[in-house]
Design brief:
This protein has 334 residues and is of the alpha+beta class. 25% of the residues lie in helices and 20% in strands. The strands form three sheets. Strands 1-2-10-7-12-5-4-3 form an eight-stranded mixed β-sheet. It starts with 39 loop residues before the first strand and ends in a 15-residue tail after the last helix. Belongs to the iron/ascorbate-dependent oxidoreductase family.
């Protein structure tokens, strides 16, 4: 099935029928709000915690600047991602798999064993923590791949822990509460490539979904917008800012905050004139972490919204479904 990779073809003359959405499910690109944007937080500002609280409760998404990840490393990460998808088809085929359980795999769409309509996306999925366990299994081409990606992963993990502490404080919890509850967090990465699409109005790079993990840190393509966030029933384009990273709340933080913070639906759309590449880093609870809101966030007027569960239970349920199905978190309501 490696032949299914979209990045093996330089220019696609037409959109195959397997990617065409029913009319009622198409992105309606002309209705997207392009001149509004999600909050931007300068992590060196004095009121970071207050800004995080506002962004998490109102959007579930925000961008961060002055985040501590070096500009040169960000550029190197994007360059090596682009280089990977430019590799010859036979080189990429070595890494192809449709098995979601594999901890290093190149694939296409989202979960082609479950889908009825495909997404216009190729992606390389990596497990990233602990690095010494997983880096040996990563691609050796491009030659700088392992060095650049592992360095980026380390920096992003530090940023993620910093953000989780700010989110804990914003919920008026102890600073290390979320870091402790989530346990020895796993870290995954999806290097996404969305090639030029001949008919972007008929399909998605990735249809609307929420992230099943705790926190996602996205390195967006600096030249092409494609990420969109749903707010108050309208889709808002997330326009990339120079060297900014995009942060979004995952399902586990919605559950742990007892619904105060929302894991917001987002989607990726595609472009007729330009391809787009992005790098998503996912901080995930350890498999045996018990996901349950703290007593401080449970009151008579705000009872527990979700039953207690392990992250392993949640993750298996998520991957057993198609993205078009009901929001996975709904299946865990009290």
């Amino acid at each position: 099935m490696a032949a299914a990779l979209l990045s093996n073809v330089t220019d696609h003359a037409s959109l195959p029928s397997s990617y065409v959405r029913p009319e009622s499910q198409r992105p309606c690109l002309e209705e997207v709000i392009t001149n509004a944007n999600i909050p931007t937080i300068d992590l060196t500002s004095f009121d970071v915690v207050a800004q995080v609280a506002q962004a998490c409760s109102s959007y579930g998404f925000f961008q961060v600047v002055n985040h501590g990840v070096e500009v040169e490393l960000i550029q190197e990460m994007m360059e090596v991602a682009l280089e990977f998808f430019r590799l010859p088809a036979e080189e990429k085929a070595k890494h192809y798999s449709d098995d979601p359980a594999k901890k290093m795999r190149l694939s296409t769409s989202f979960n082609i064993k479950k889908e009825t309509v495909r997404n216009w996306r190729d992606y390389l999925r990596l497990h990233c923590y602990p690095l010494d366990e997983f880096v040996p299994t990563w691609p050796s081409n491009p030659p700088t791949f392992k060095e650049v990606v592992s360095t980026y992963c380390s920096e992003v993990r530090q940023l993620g822990m910093r953000l989780l502490r700010a989110i804990s404080l914003s919920l008026e919890l102890e600073e290390d509460y979320l870091v402790k509850v989530l346990g020895e967090q796993e870290q995954h990465m999806a290097i996404n490539h969305y090639p030029k699409c001949p008919e972007p109005e008929l399909t998605y790079g990735l249809q609307a979904h929420t992230d099943p993990n705790a926190l996602t840190i996205l390195l967006p393509d600096p030249t092409v917008a494609g990420l969109q966030v749903l707010k108050d029933g309208q889709w808002i384009a997330v326009n990339p800012q120079p060297n900014a990273l995009v942060i979004n709340i995952g399902d586990q933080l919605q559950a742990l905050s007892n619904g105060r913070y929302k894991s917001v639906q987002h989607r990726a759309v595609v472009n007729k004139d330009k391809g787009r590449t992005s790098v998503a880093s996912f901080l995930c609870p350890c498999n045996n972490a018990i996901i349950s809101p703290p007593e401080k966030l449970i009151t008579d007027g705000s009872p527990a919204m979700y039953r207690s569960y392990t992250y392993d239970e949640y993750y298996k349920k998520f991957w057993s479904k198609n993205l078009d199905d009901v929001h996975c978190l709904e299946l865990f309501k009290s």
